[in-house]
Amino acid sequence: MKLQSNLHGGGRSFLAAMMEEAEQDTSPAPSDQNSPSPSISSSPSLSLPSTPSSSCGPPQAATPPLCVISEGVSELSLVIDAEVAQLACQEVLQKVKLRQVDDDVTHLQNGAGPQAEPAIAKPSKIREEDDPEGLAPGSVKSARRRQRHNPSKQSWLLRLFESKLFDVSMAISYLHNSKEPGVQAYIGNRLFSFPHEDVDFFLPQLLNMYIHMDEDVGDAIKPYVVHRCRQSISFSLQCAWLLGAYSSDMHISTQRHSRGTKLRKLILSDELKPAGPRARRDPLMLTPFCPTAAHVGGSGPLGGDHGLSPSKRTHQRSKSDATVSISLSSNLKRTASNPKVESSQDEDSSSSYDSLEFDSGPPVRLAPQREFIKSLMGIGKRLATLPTKEQKTQRLISELSLLNHKLPARVWLPTAAFDHHVVRVPHTQAVVLNSKDKAPYLIYVEVLECENFETSSVPIRIPENRIRSTRSVENLPDCGMTAEQRAGSFSVVPNYDNDDEAWSVDDIGELQVELPEIHTNSCDNISQFSVDSITSLESKEPVFIAAGDIRRRLSEQLAQAPTTFKRDPEDPSAVALKEPWEEKVRRIREGSPYGHFPNWRLLSVIVKCGDDLRQELLAFQVLQQLKSIWEQERVPLWIKPYKILVLSADSGMIEPVMNAVSLHQVKKQSQLSLLDYFLQEHGAPTTEAFLSAQRNFVQSCAGYSLICYLLQVKDRHNGNILLDADGHIIHIDFGFILSSSPKNLGFETSAFKLTSEFVDVMGGPDGDMFNYYKMLMLQGLIAARKHMDRVLQIVEIMQQGSQLPCFHGSSTMRGLKERFHMSLTEEQLQLLIDQLVDGSMRSLTTKLYDGFQYLTNGIM
Amino acid sequence: MSQVEKKAGLLRRTSSSKKPLKEKVVLMYDEIFAKEDPAKNNPRFWDELFLMKVNLEYLESKLESVDGEEVQRIQDNINSLFHHCVQALGEEHQIKVVNALQTLCALFRGVHQKNKSASGFDIINMLMGFDKAEQRMKDLMERLDSLLCGDSSESLKSLCLKLLLCLVTVTDNISQNTILEYVMINSIFEAILQILSDVSSRGQHGYDAVVLLALLVNYRKYESVNPYIVKLSIVDDEPTLDGMGVVVHQALTEYNRQYKDKEEENQGGFFSTLTSMVGSMFIADVDEKLSVQTNEAILLALYEAVHLNRNFITVLAQSHPEIDIATTPTTPTPTTPTTPLGTTPPSLDMMNNPELPLDPNLQTSNLLITFLKYASIVIQDTKDEHRLNSARLCLIILTCIAEDQYADAFLHDDNMNFRVNLHRMPMRHRKKAVDKNIPSRPLVCAVLDLMVEFIVTHMMKDFPMDLYLRCVQIIHKLLCYQKKCRIRLHYTWRELWSALINLLKFLLSNETTLLAKHNIFHLALLVVNLFNMFITYGDTFLPTSNSYDELYYEIVRMHQVFDNLYCMVLRVSTNTGQWKEAASKVTHALVNVRAIINHFNPKIESYAAVNHISQLSEEQVLEVVRSNYDTLTLKLQDGLDQFERYSEQPKEAAFFKELVRSISLNVRKNVSLNTLSQDVLLKEFSTIS
């Protein structure tokens, strides 16, 4: 309803925005994007073109109705649009700095933006011209034509806003810079038309503005946030966490009454639940209007289908998260062998199913995930109290095994890129990471990928005991079954309660007899020797073996064994990280009762408790932005931004970098120089493997050198630089960036870390690769300079209301801007790069700092 | 109630002042034991009866004193009493329920006391009457079930369990307790599970529930289909299984703690050790003081769970922070948060969760570790019957664990390292190991340590052959797993080798005395085959190539023992006698060991001669070994990596029958004490009502 209408209103929007507040209370939950609003009943097929429902089909599905809408809307906008919007925009335009316009022009010149923008409702003036081709909605062609046709008639700003080049990044920038409520409200509405992923990237900025900027900005942002919260649990939680984290720098008294805190409370109270019941009750009415939405509504009952088996007396553990929570808490006596309890359980669940899944009360929607995160944080806090690594590791394993009892559940890892349910934490694989007083830890998480974690049914628990699960697997006729079918067949196996009488002591005896078969089968695979002994049994001919052979085999096998790190109770993570990821996945999958599912995946995450990850998040955003800039400009710099999840001002999660060990660990284990290590790992200098590793190394070095320079990343000891299996280096730990540096020891004055070992890997200071390195840096800097604002705005917005050490002092932004050297010519820039490289190479401080780290932290 | 009593007292005083004062309830009992139907004159008789405080002694003695003929006469009244007891269990009035429960207790006990020799059917007839027995017992079990599962008071639940324990243990041999047939039909298994799955009820009744379950599982185990066995074997609900684990864990921890306290008491310092040594010359022995009553019932429960339920194995590895019961006596120590994700409103008490105390000094522990510690105490002293049984049961449980693939997996898991402080017997020739220096290792190392410890400490005249066999078999099973899965355990195998060689030595030197009682050849064969495992399959599981050399070194160093063993078995196998067969097996098994000795001994001697060294150092011998492998040929023996799987029937049946009998006696003794002191309970209810 009004949310949709906002979307279309190019300029009509702030009026709508004003109406919004009024409507907010009276209107029922805006039930997805599809309920026809009385006010725009003339365009019944209104649907949100650009808000692809995260849960279902391709967003394009919504395009067909779009053309119809455009016409309907343009009629409407004729009424509202013209005067108000354009007046406002033009006024604003005067205030907008010229620089921005220039920038925009460059944008325009740069040609097509990467993403095909969905068509925006057209302002009245160009309506006539577009009408003829109104049936080709959203096409690039029409967009271009629009631009071509009205350069003179319209204000630049409005034109820009409506151009297809206007992307989220620009929207955020204008939202931040514009003082004009009209523009802000307009952009607030425009947010709805951007793809979710694009906006999600700027969520920290949006929310920080919401918290720390004035009413108007807040009002402009809020509808969008609320709308998204209604759609998605993960978005809701993400918002709640970020709101909490970015409000924390406020004074406690203001914080309590701040907008951010209020919104956070609103989200956490889960009043922003989707209007599912309506969707469910009137699916027929909805379908014609929005196929996608109908799909969402439909997937509710669909998701329920496999749970709707109260007649079957199975003990499916989870018909829905609702039943899980009920069955585990209030009714613990539920056991497989307890038919009495079981049946009553089924009644419970079937009745509660409807009520909870759809009219979900507060606990059900958000709580499992919150509880999951809370458990992980609780573990971290308790680990921190233990004195030794060994104790921490033991405690971690035991805590995680308890956590396993509550899985599978409707919980997920927010750092993952796909929808899934967490089914198990292989607790013995978890390791405590090296840290002096905190206890960050790395866990591996087994998940089952699913279509949508909110609607897909939670997998059924399979007991830890491997043998039982093997039996279950045997009973699976086909691996390609859907989850529901599998659920059905699984329940067959443990479903003994139907006929207890059929079980006798003999049956149990049989089960036990089965075991040795499994044993021998598996042992045959593993050991040739047992085969030997079996054959010798048959032949009865004495078999002779040479003692020397046994001894030789022993030493050979020991030598063959992959070079793992030695288990060191003081550095438990080294072993875990050294193991190649594929190897680890295979091993864990073998040992997991869920491993046979085709949609089984292994994820890992670092849980940090007591650490502020907001700076890391900021660094991630900058890195990501630079990465996409370099991609856009086709500069082959390589960097690896790793995902950061900020949970609060002192906790969060980090996505670990795969197949990478720190330079410190490399050096300590191999006792080789970096070049020799490359030779050992990738082969002789002329081999393709080495050359490509070297190229990777150079490209990543160039990328990170620039980043270290631009962001002034400090604390660059070898423990904070990883080397991956392909030769890339990856910098981690952005705890000291911009205005902050560790302990102010005055070390690390060089622009970035470039040791002679690095240069050696590149082939020496006179080699081609080294020149390539410098050239890459130059290209990278030029590209970054071109899009400087995209980087600056990320940082600038986050500075708002922030007490983070990286914003310490007043010159943070100025300094950052200066490092882009807008005023220099390309020749001058080249000179600058040469200076930086030379300075870093010659810099004693890098060496000094490494020495300092070795003395204080034992990092080589 | 007190009014009724007062009235009764007044009445008595006026009417029969001469007679000794009798409680009203006693008078009422008398009425029951009279011919007449007590309700005939007083229609409210039964109502009143259950308002009276039960006089258990009187009722029981009355039942005992009834002789044959009288039984027939009063059977109707007893049937009626039983019937009304069952009825009263459904009463709202808690006092009546309490009294009915106790009366039932007295009935079961009294009737059995009287009819020790009588058949179960007579007893059933006397209590309930044949025709109504089924219905009565069904009612009784249903009432008990609903009392246990409902939200009645905790004391009431406790009393219900006591009644059930009383019923289960009235006969010495549980399988002869015919009434239990009805308990089989009307299962209370679910009620027991519910108690175990709930944190608070587990804390208060868990122990009784677990013991009751262990006993019920043993009812006619080998003769019929026991539904409790079936049900226990398929439980897969983690909170429940975990609950069971926690109860066992606590009981064993408590034992370990008591033992440690006593030990510390006894070894308070140099002086006290001295005095106790002196004292021990006069007083029986020190060990007496150290022996804390072992708890076979809980051990039996652990065994049944491990043996019957495959899912329980996971509970063994379920870590709990070690709980010091002494410091937290009141709070039941829950180990599994029963609230799943998402039900509890997010709580801040995650940090001060009582279940996971923050004391950094607490070592994380799990049921298996606690059990290993317990076992290390129990196997120290196997002199008296109880402790021998406990030790045997411990080893049986370990056998089951060693056979389980999942258990083996976590025993050998390199990521799960623990320090396990096993108790070691103080011996003359060794100091007590310093606890703190035990390295953190995979759990299987602790199991092996325990086995080695047992082997070296039990070479005595009264040779526990059975335990030795189990012990060696456990080692064998673990080795088979390691070989199969190619797990190279970093364990000091040398200690095991020398322990085994010493065992062979002991067998040799005590041949005559031992042969009178045991088949020592069987044990010798197992031991030699352990060596054969190392010799022929060492490449698959030894941790370093050096360890293979060390094995040869050890064999060559101790060649005398193997030589003597060979002479002995050769001698016996050439003679005709009952051991001929067994001994000849050992001769065959020794083939590789002898080949090694015969191959390397001359080489070493010549090396010494060539280099003019009289005493070769270890390194020199190892060098000789290393350089002479290639000329040695070994014979591959069959079936070294095969083992007979543990099965309770028929081999262990007799042991378990005896064990259950002794547990029954013990439980009965303890239950009777408890039921008699129900004043507290009554007080509680009189305040309620």
UniProtKB/TrEMBL annotation, chain A:
Residues 30-59, 350-360 have a biased composition (Low complexity). GO terms for molecular function: 1-phosphatidylinositol 4-kinase activity; ATP binding. Keywords: ATP-binding, Endoplasmic reticulum, Kinase, Lipid metabolism, Membrane, Mitochondrion, Mitochondrion outer membrane, Nucleotide-binding, Transferase. It is an enzyme of class 2 (transferase). Its cofactor is Mg(2+); Mn(2+). Residues 321-341 have a biased composition (Polar residues). Its EC number is 2.7.1.67. The keyword Translocase does not apply. Belongs to the PI3/PI4-kinase family. Type III PI4K subfamily. This is Phosphatidylinositol 4-kinase beta. It comes from Stegastes partitus (bicolor damselfish). The gene is pi4kb.
From TrEMBL, chain B:
GO terms for cellular component: cytosol; membrane. Residues 435-671 form the Armadillo-like helical domain. InterPro entries: ARM-type_fold (IPR016024), ARMD3-like (IPR039868), ARMH3_C (IPR013636). It holds the Pfam family ARMH3_C. Keywords: Membrane, Transmembrane, Transmembrane helix. It is found in: Membrane. This is Armadillo-like helical domain-containing protein 3. It comes from Stegastes partitus (bicolor damselfish).
